[in-house]
Amino acid sequence: MDIVLIGGLWLDGSAWDEVVPELRALGHRPVPVTLPGQGDGSVSATLDDQVAAVLAAVDAASGRPMVVGHSAACTLAWLAADARPEQVAKVALVGGFPAADGDRYADFFELKDGAMPFPGWGPFEGPDSADLDEEARLRFAAAAIPVPEGVSKGVVRLTDERRWDVPVVLVCPEYTPAQAQEWLDAGDLPELARAKHVDLVDIDSGHWPMMTRPAEVARLLAEAAAETGS
Fold first, then answer.
1. Judging by beta carbons within 10 Å of its beta carbon (0-12, 13-18, 19+), is residue 83 exposed, middle or buried?
2. Does CATH place domain 2-226 in 3.40.630.30?
3. Which residue from 10, 27, 203, 205 has the fewest beta carbons nearer than 10 Å?
4. CB neighbour list of residue 114: distance below 8 Å, 6 or more residues apart
5. β-strands 147-148, 115-116: how paired?
6. pLDDT tens, 169-210?
């Protein structure tokens, strides 16, 4: 199965470099996406540009792909399901949840010179970064790509209710499936609360498991792909 891989804020397609060979070994075709404004040199990219790049990968896939979003890019994966509900076989959300219609995409941190740079490790102290040693933190920060304002402040638009028919697997890294279920039950995750099929799976990692637990990420994604019946 083709598996489209979308990294979160400040990441390009290389975020999945250690997951890609593991998925190939498990019989799948990984398709890591380098998003406009996050690795292609563009500083004026918009959220619409990023959605278009994801949809291009979906449209180029062989058969019906699974679309994987990490962190903020869980919204991009969900936007793909909204735009291609009959084409996306499953959505996998790693360490994040889709924004609702009308929300800003990722208006989380201060802008500088028209982009949102990595804010340092302060906001991510604790479970998010507990499995990253100092060397890994330095590498991450050095490679982090400021996210253009047109992306971070882009408004999410969801239009097709058939997105709720697309199966979802929620991969829970720095929080547990039990915590995620509590948020679902409390109505804190409105898009997922209306999804008709949501599975929750655990991974013992921080917020970036594709870097710290790549083999396990690949295994979980391969299991999710197998369950689609494709």
1. buried
2. no
3. 27
4. 43, 148, 149
5. antiparallel
6. 999 999 999 999 999 999 999 999 999 999 999 999 999 999
